[in-house]
## 1
Amino acid sequence: MQSEHEALNARLARSGRAAASGERRERADRVSAIYRSVWLWHFWSGLVITPVLVVVSITGALYVFKADIEAWMKPAVYTVQPAGDRVGFEAFRHAFDSRHPDFELRFINVPDDPRRAWEGIALRRPGHGEAQTMMAYFDPWRGELTGVHPRNEGFFAVVLALHRNLMGGLPGRILVEAATCWCIVSVLAGLYLWWPRKKEKFRGVWLPRVKGSLTRLLRDWHTVPGMYLSIVTLFVLLSGLLFTQIWGLAYQGINLATGGLPSFLLDPPKSERPAEAESGRPAIDADRALALAREQFDFTRAAYSVDLPSRGSDGAYQFISDTETALIDHAVVFIDQYSGRTLLFQSEADMPWRTRFTQLFYPVHVGSIFGRTTQVLAVLSCLLLVVMALTGVWMWLRRRRPGSFGAPPAPPAGSAPRWLVRLTIGLAVFLPTVGISLLLIHFGDRLWQRRRLSRTSR
């Protein structure tokens, strides 16, 4: 009896060990399937978007320091020397009108740096030829124009066009949006692949190695620096979605439908035109309007801008404080161009929280939110995207064997866990161009498979 009992215990122990071993294998297979799925996503997303990503990242890095580069390239246009008292907006208007009577100055941006020229935007007057926008620069210390050029010309006009749409119009803009969305996916996938799963060595995980094989060096410099700036990179990428064709319009549409936009954006206050104003001359000039606006909010403490109403129209002067930094108060004031009455004063606290949140997108995207520090971080993230994209392609070319594409092996069909499927669906909904891309890939693959089967059945 004792020997039978011992044999039974031995069989139970062996079956328990086999069950535990089976569970470990099943868990290992599941983890392997997840890893292979994420690696496949990281590989294909990174490989396909690399050409677009390199162009967009380099132009984005340049645009972060637009003001500094412009001042270096054309100091006579963009920089001024403070001397005495500054003249006002009307001096800018007069200097521009005397040289360009076919255009009307409609917008002036006043920088916080007194050594920087004022920037104006002018529109061609109705009946004076095709619509065109001009950029004008003004020295407020000497009261003279420093330069004028069409808005779509110049170095940074090309940089911005490449950054937004690869100079390809609407198709290019959608392509840039798709590359941005897939870059977000690739960065998230890269973080998952990097994430330490056991006690790893310090070098190669937390610090890139400088010695070893080229493959090892490429892997380290592809992974480790990007990990440290991954949060900054994701903020830069996500904030850029506001300016895209699909995600950006959907976001603003939801804000509009749910009351997330301030009323003055939807229905700007208008001036009341008295009968004597039919001559087209406003009752008060822009300098007087600024003085009245400053009774509500001191715009001159930092950078600000003013929208100049067209003479004789029902438009109003609009003063708005700089929104490129997070360390100052923001406000907007509308002044009636005839009576000088304050039509609207709205401080940042009075605006919907979603408006305040949306105002952060641009300063986050260009790195100006906390000054030079975040500008440098934004540029570093752009340059690291270039490095990671190029090193990724380099690693693929080294790993690829003759006669094969060199893509990571796909996991077995149906091996992806439900949470990964749900996460994929969530990303496809949150990033519509990712969802559209996945649908195109799915239907393209089915079409290719059908054609393949039809050929083999002949």
Note: Residues 273 and 314 are 6 Å apart (CA to CA).
## 2
Amino acid sequence: MVTEIQFSETDDPIDNPMSESDLLQSAFCMQNKYTLVTHNIRHFVHIEYLSLEDWV
């Protein structure tokens, strides 16, 4: 179960806050060991251990 999302050390959540929907999507994918498919990679690249794929 995902209890917290780890952000990379170079990212500052205060300067780049995540939207609630991005947070929920990433947590769901991490919880179920899914790959998140999105064209907005920059929204998620700072989350460690999240598998990302850009199919565009």
Note: The longest helix spans residues 20-31.
## 3
Amino acid sequence: MKILKYIILFSFMGYLSAQAQVISLDEFKTAALKHNHKIKEAHFKLKSAEEQQKETYTNFFPKVNAGFTSVRLNKDLIDIQIPELKLPVSQGGTVIPNQFAVLPGLPVQAIKEIDFGYLNAVLPVYMGGQIRNGNKLTKMLIDINSTALQLTEDQTILQTEKLYWQIVSFNEKCKTLDSYEKLLHQLNTDVSNSFEAGLINKSDVLKVQLEQNKLSAQKLQLNNAIEILTMTLCQFTGITYNKQIRLNGKLQELVTPQQLYTTPEEAVNRRKEYQLLQKGVEVAQLQHKLTKGSLMPSLALGVNNFHLKMDNNDKMYTATYLTLSVPLSNWWAGSHQLKQSKYQTSIAKNNLDEKAQLMVLQINNSFQNLTLVHKQINVANSGLETAEENLKVVTNNFKAGIANTSDLLEAQAEHQKAQDNLIDVKTKYILQKNDYLFSVSNLSR
């Protein structure tokens, strides 16, 4: 009979294992880089910037346009009647009286159909550098969006790691509660037997049962938190959620802060935020050049070929022209625009300097926090060892009848608290480690 029970138990466990969908951290990160909505949006922005640059590049080439107009009038545009003319007749230089040469009246009707077509091409010869600098600006926007995409990817990886390790932390706490539950179950059996034997009061049994109820409530809250976090992680990474998803992460041995250290000044140059600020300065400088170019004269060369047909008369014309435009009235206002753009460049440079200093402070602060949490792990390990030793002593005293039920419950609760504290500190260290690696632009993908 026992053999049959074991067969059923192992078969059921095998069934659960077969149904579980185990997903690693790397799989979550790969999925996030592919499916996260913020990353998709950043990709779209990059593609948009690339198309904008291609559009701007066309400004180097002639602008060609064509048109055709066809007019059909309900009556002739020219509709006149030439009156009859009488011209005197002369002979030998002498006009003959009362004799005339008569030219009859003549109706003149024309232009009822008009067709006009043209082909015009204009080539910008000089535009004050606006075309060249505009093209540089759109190339810069590609670089900005590319860097912004990398920053979004790093932020997505950071958030994925945060959600993942929070779930792992709760899973570890579930294991702690399971162990504690077994201890309480055994203790409940022992105190129930002692009560039936008349060795202890009913209150001791109720204390254990009350602790079991508290434990059940904790497990419900913990499992609910795990489910919600798992759903959040799946939505964030684009993985379809189901209740069989399991994480295989473990709070293993952690690297020391010294193994991760990077010089702040060196790390700042790698920061995507710093690179974006640098590009912001370059954009401000190009904007200044564009403003200056808009105040310069512009020169364009054009060619126009047009065909004119009126009724049955066809003619083709070709015109070449040169256009010079000088924005005279804009120079007064433009001088102030130039000063504004210079100040904008100064603002961008000042912002770069300030943010670089703040980044150095942030990196230093992040490393100090990492070092502090690493020390807290040692303290938590020491606290767990003390709690384990205390639980062992109290358990032996309880079995010997020296300690009461309350003492044992308190020792077990302290042991569980010490285990949870160690889990919390290890999780905090992993999250702080990722924050530090992100701050030095060295977060693993």
Note: The mean pLDDT is 89.
